[in-house]
Amino acid sequence: MAKKKNFPLRIDPELHKILERWAQDEFRSVNGHLEFLLREAVKRAGRLKNNEHKEE
Q1: Residue 7: inside a domain
Q2: Is 8 a member of any domain?
Q3: Structural domain of residue 26, as residue ranges?
Q4: Spatial distance between the Cα atoms of 23 and 33, rounded to a whole number of angstroms
């Protein structure tokens, strides 16, 4: 398993509540869902090719 980078994130409490509900709907943790959303945004922006990183 690839090592993950830890970093602090300050986020608006209301946005965090929204992300919590969304993550629950997708059966993910908030952290896992944020990583998923960020990875999708990076792919759409053309910054990460599909074969550069395998999803776990």
Answers
A1: no
A2: no
A3: 13-44
A4: 6
Integer Cα distance of 39 and 33 in angstroms: 10
Q: What is the pTM of this model?
A: 0.78
Measured CA to CA, the distance from residue 5 to residue 35 in angstroms comes to 11
Can you tell me the mean pLDDT for 27-48? 95
Inside any domain, residue 34: yes
The closest of 33, 41, 34, 26 to 9, measured between CA atoms, is 34
The region, left, alpha or beta by phi > 0 then psi within -120 to 50, assigned to residue 49 is beta
Domain count for the chain, please give it.
Answer: 1
Record the tokens describing residue 32, joined without a space.
Answer: 């896992």
* DSSP character at residue 47: S
